[in-house]
Every structure is written in structure tokens, then in C-alpha cells.
Amino acid sequence: MTTIAESAPRDAVARLGPRRDRELARRIARSAAAPEGAFLATDEVDGWLAERRRAHPFRVDRIPFADLDGWSFAPESGNLVHRSGRFFTVEGLRVTGTDGPFGSWHQPVIRQPEVGVLGIVVKEFQGVLHFLMQAKMEPGNRNLLQLSPTVQATRSNYTGAHRGARVRYLDYFTGPGRGRVLADVLQSEHGAWFLRKSNRNMLVEAVGDVELHEDFCWLTLGQIGRLLRRDNVVNMDARTVLACAPQAGADDTDAAALHSDTGLLSWFTGERARHDVTAERVPLASLPGWWQGDRSIEREDGRYFRVVAVGVQAGSREVGGWTQPLFEPTGTGVTAFLTRRIEGVSHLLAHARTEAGFADTVELAPTVQYTPSNYAGLPEAERPPFLDTVLGAEPSRIRYEALHSEEGGRFLNAESRYLFVEATPDEAPLEPPPGYVWVTPGQLNGLLRHNHYVNVQARTLLSCLASGAVRL
């Protein structure tokens, strides 16, 4: 009898290669240093986006829950569900064991267990990498149309659950042989409003010609960085993908830092181990402190956020019209890294932040990530650390500031003021309070090769560094 070993083909000639492409980070850096590209001038992007707005009908209207098509409140739980069983559900959540003045609470939450694809096609023109960006409409964006990844699709969408048109360029991220993978990692979404939601963040360098659709454009990373200095131009999904691009210095184990990589990982593992957060799904209809009306589900005191419904018309999307629920915050967020140069090396003060929806309880977040109105009236001892430092920062110490939209496909008018603020030793000492740690941008970029270490708000700020929108 012939054995498996005897019938197996002999090994082909081994072809070993380097474990990492060190040239890639330099190519990314060259693109970030290119303020103009081979195609559309940076100053022409606003006009191009305006043209794409005029080319398609876009409209979003608030509607009562009764007018939702295909959505309904489940009889027993009161959860807001789609008749297909796909897309997402709005459920209740009971949270206990978090830090801060609000140690336990109830809230609605978005449960969307499927993994989506956020991907950008990359191609070299005239010796410089360009990124294929999409003018994409999202119903929750205040200005509706923003620069988005080449592909931004949930599994329900790209498998055709909406019965709409096929997602353009999807094969570069799901099919074999269409390109060279530059980055591919699962990253979390907003842990405050999503329950354990992850997306596949990808950069793929195209092989061969790429047909350009009229709703897409090629931009260098430097052009995107210039656009990131403007309010509400580059959407959240593009920012999180760009943050995952390999950066020069991230693999340099000899680079100086206040903490070694091993020491940083040990500290972070200890933070995860010491937090015991419980997030339990409960019926939406039974949430204490929340009430449901014809047009919203909101807290009795009107704080934090509400659940609303909208009707959407979007001529450039795979489906031309639909209805859906959205989460609408009641205030504008403030998200900031405090920065210091420690012996000449730029460092960021990161926070090991617990959020009920994180898959691993804790992720590294910016120094400050709060909506100030949610903490109005609290005594000073109960206000979040460093929030007042950021709010009271002198303009000369603000290294970067812009207003950016959060996830426009699930949140309505959700915006945060993003900042880098240079801190003094008195404001941010080398030995910060428990739960905070000084890290270099390179250390954070290195962690972005792995799942669920760096949260989506921190990734927005890191995309600003990666693209040259700010230099520390």
C-alpha cells in the first residue's frame, strides 16, 4: 500500500525571502512627502467632491420608526431588527465594572457580528504611491459626501443582502492574485456604541492597470494629509486604514523610547488583566432610564445619545434608497493626544481605555476621548483626567486641530474635535496617573499590525501623523 509520504510530490526549490519589506515604509514616506500627485491637484479636490454631489441625488430625512421599511421592533425583546436577519440589530446592554464616576449603566448598542472590509487600492505613478479614494455618501455625515476607502462594505453588502449593485473593486480584497497585500489586520470600531464589532483594514498594491470609475480618484498620501487638516473631508474608515500603513521607524527596535516594546506590552497586558468589565445583552425594551417615542429612543435626562430613524436617497450607492436606524450623539466629542519631546524624541500620552463593546475590554486610546457636555456639573475630582488641560490649551501649544466625522453609516452627525496638544511637564509628568503611558508614534504603529491594540479614535490621530498632516 502506498503511504501518504510516498505519494506526496517532492518539495519544490525553496525560495526564502525577508520577513519584512523595509523598503515599503520608505515608499509610504515618499508618498506622504508628496504634496501633489500625478492626477488631481489637492486644491481641485473640493471642486471634484462638489461635482460628485451634483452628479447624484442625495437626501436624508428623519422619519418615525413606523416608516422604517424592513425594520421592526421584535415582539418579545423590543430589539430593532431587519426582516432579513442581516445587517445589524439595535439591542440593550447592561455594563458593570468600568472605571470612572459611572461604574455601571444600561444603554442601547449596535450588534453587528459580521466582519466588514475597509480597503484602499494603492498603485505607483511616476515613482510615488497613490491611493484610490472614493467620494462616498454616508447618511450620518453632516456634509454627506466624504473621501472614503476604495472599498467600504459590510459582509451583508458585499454578499448582496441589499440586492443592490456589486461593490466596485471588491476583488482586490477578496479575490486571489489581484495585488500585493501591504497591510491586513482586524481593527475594532467604536466600543461605546458597537458590541465587539471589527473590520478588516487592508492596503493592497494593484498589479496591472486599474480602471478608474468617475466616483474615485488617485491621491498621494501627502495630498490626503493636507485634506486631513480640513474639517469633515476624509471619513473615519479611510483614516483607520491609513493609520495601519507601515511607517518608517516602527520596526526599528534600537529606536529610543521611554519604555521598551516589551515593557510597553507588559504594562498593557497588566491593564487588560486588572479590568473586569461585564457587558451583558438585555432586551432593548427593558432599559432602565431610557424611554421610547415615535421618533427616538433616548435617556430620560436627554444626555449621551439617542436612537433615531432616517430615510435615505443616494444615487451613487449600490442601492439608491433605503431606511435605517442611526445613533445620534447629543454633543461634540473632544479627542486629543497630549505630546511631549522626551530627550528629543516625540512621545504621546496614551490611555488604556475600557469600553463595553471592545472584544478585549481594553485598547490604547488618546489621552482624552470624551464629550464634555456629558461631564458638565461634576465636581473637579470626578472630571476625566487631562480633559481640562486640553480644553484650556493655549493656541500656541495646539499642534493640530480639525473636526472629523465618526462612522457615518451608523451614527448621525457624530463629530469630534481632534487635537494634538503639546503639554508641559507639570500638566503631563513622565510618571502619569494609573492607566496612562508614554509611547512613541512608532510603537503605536507597530502595534497596529495586530488586532485590537489601538482604538479607532487613536487611529484617526495616527493617520494624521502618517500622512504628514501634523509633525511633532
Can you describe this structure?
The protein is 18% helix and 33% strand. The chain is of the alpha+beta class and 472 residues long. Among the domains are: 22-57 and 114-243, Nucleoside Triphosphate Pyrophosphohydrolase; 261-278 and 331-466, Nucleoside Triphosphate Pyrophosphohydrolase, CATH 3.90.79.40. Strand 16 and strand 17 (321-329) form a beta hairpin. Helix 7 crosses helix 11. The longest helix is centred in the middle third of the chain and has 14 residues, at 261-274. Residues 43-244, 263-465 form the dTDP-4-dehydro-6-deoxy-alpha-D-glucopyranose 2,3-dehydratase domain. This is NDP-hexose 2,3-dehydratase family protein.
Describe the structure in brief:
The chain contains 11 helices and 24 strands. 18% of the residues lie in helices and 33% in strands.
**Gyration radius, rounded:** 23 Å
CATH topology grouping of one domain: Nucleoside Triphosphate Pyrophosphohydrolase
Question: Care to count the β-strands?
Answer: 24
* Class by alpha and beta content: alpha+beta
How are the SSEs ordered, and which strands pair?
Blueprint: H1 4-7, H2 22-32, H3 45-55, E1 58-63, E2 71-73, E3 80-82, E4 89-96, E5 104-111, E6 116-125, E7 128-137, E8 145-148, E9 151-153, H4 155-158, H5 171-174, E10 179-188, E11 198-206, E12 216-220, H6 221-228, H7 236-243, H8 261-274, E13 278-282, E14 290-292, E15 296-299, E16 305-314, E17 321-329, E18 333-342, E19 345-354, E20 362-365, E21 368-370, H9 387-391, E22 398-405, E23 415-422, E24 436-439, H10 441-447, H11 456-466
